[in-house]
Fold:
Amino acid sequence: MIGCSRCDRRAVIFQRHSNRHLCKRHFIEDFERRIKLAVRKFKMIEKNDRIAIALSGGKDSVTLTYTLAKLYEKRRDLELFAITIDEGISNYRPPTVEIARKVAEQLGIEHVVVSFEENFGMTLDEMVKRGDKKPCTYCGVFRKYLLNRTAREMGATKLATGHNLDDETQTILLNFLNADMERMARLVPQRVQEGLIMRIKPFRYIYEKEVVVYGLLHNLPMDFEECPYSYFPVRASVRDFLYEFENKYPGRKFSVMNSFEKLIPCLREMYPQIDLNRCERCGEPTPKKVCQACKLLEELG
Amino acid sequence: MIGCSRCDRRAVIFQRHSNRHLCKRHFIEDFERRIKLAVRKFKMIEKNDRIAIALSGGKDSVTLTYTLAKLYEKRRDLELFAITIDEGISNYRPPTVEIARKVAEQLGIEHVVVSFEENFGMTLDEMVKRGDKKPCTYCGVFRKYLLNRTAREMGATKLATGHNLDDETQTILLNFLNADMERMARLVPQRVQEGLIMRIKPFRYIYEKEVVVYGLLHNLPMDFEECPYSYFPVRASVRDFLYEFENKYPGRKFSVMNSFEKLIPCLREMYPQIDLNRCERCGEPTPKKVCQACKLLEELG
Structure:
């Protein structure tokens, strides 16, 4: 038996970045400490917030919903609810939507499922057949659109997503390798704008592996199925490199996050947040005259 | 025969980043164009400059010396000379010092060889035996010290080194992965300070492979021997990743350079250049009271 580095119980995880073995209790403590740290550092949760959680039903969002409920449901001034977007991907999406329903029910959290089909008259599968764009383009634009609109209509002041340290550092490094500082700047927490709910990422300091271990320790349903449309070859190269680099030099994902955070003041200065308009067609916030969702819908006929 | 993308001569290189095959003439033209571009962009060479070239005798510095002579020796207001530092690494260094001598002689460029032994009373080999620091620590500190002092004493206004795009992007990415923005800021061209000769890197937009091809096309001596002390495991990981990434997605090294250059104004603001003192012992410029070279020499006894 390998013992915990902080007590004499059995270790459930070896944290390479801290070079510690941790038992269930100390791992959970450390996990939740880093969430609270991120929340405080970026003022993710403030007094009287009503927080919408983007609950896809995958491992990250399920664990996020559980954790936020555990850590913040005692706060009388806060409210939590969950939104699941059903993009309409046959064989893949229905089981996770079901997971999302069960998780929300078990936690006693208000939950809505909003579908592409109801809102846009077609599923993602149909969009992919009709249009010439990549599936991830349709999915990304319409999912974010519905998440923001639903969150706002339901009175949310924040929108929490399950992006973890692995996701974030991949995006950061990818943007750096692409010299896409404008996209990098979009990762910077933004000031509040009318119509746009502020997004928060409480797992930004949590490794993907830790999300899984935390979820398993709490018997949360862990879905590892990958979307059949998922195709990001460049990101996959970056992911694999970061995986191997972290493996050889533990903690380097924190360094990448740290590099990014050091650049935040610069990125804010280089790419000041522009004032948003209301889309001429649907009224949703957009930097242009017509929002991306309305444009894509037009193309799709 | 594969033809040049710009004329009908035989191609000597396939430039993956531009997706072009180039003949000798058009490759050389493009190579020299990118050097002039870098020189102009960063005001590397200005009127009446006297440029010291750090000529180790390796492929990069040999090619650099040749190219600078070719491109700028007609300019009456400019002067070039070369400095070779003989660190004292048995079996490895003597042949390249010899190459440096021959190259300078053939090009008719003033040349001095300055050794660790003459200046510090011991070779690098001896330092490594006596001290407990890594060879690269001694080599880096003392080489830069002698280069700067010699350049200054010989009236240089600029000090050119052979760092190419591969070297620079490795360092940039390494600093990013290490969250070492301070070291990143050191890559930013600095304002002139008394006692410190401004370093210039005319090959910053040139791939290592191109340096080699250019050198071979001009029958320059190409030494590929690696220093026996060379040991940079982290840098090697980054080098290999960049190599593969560039291989899959040609041109990404330019993107990394581009990311860095976009950050230059920020880096200048984040890490303003501090005024240097004169070392209490040797009088050379240093941010501290005693310079790093004098400290290391003291440790070495």
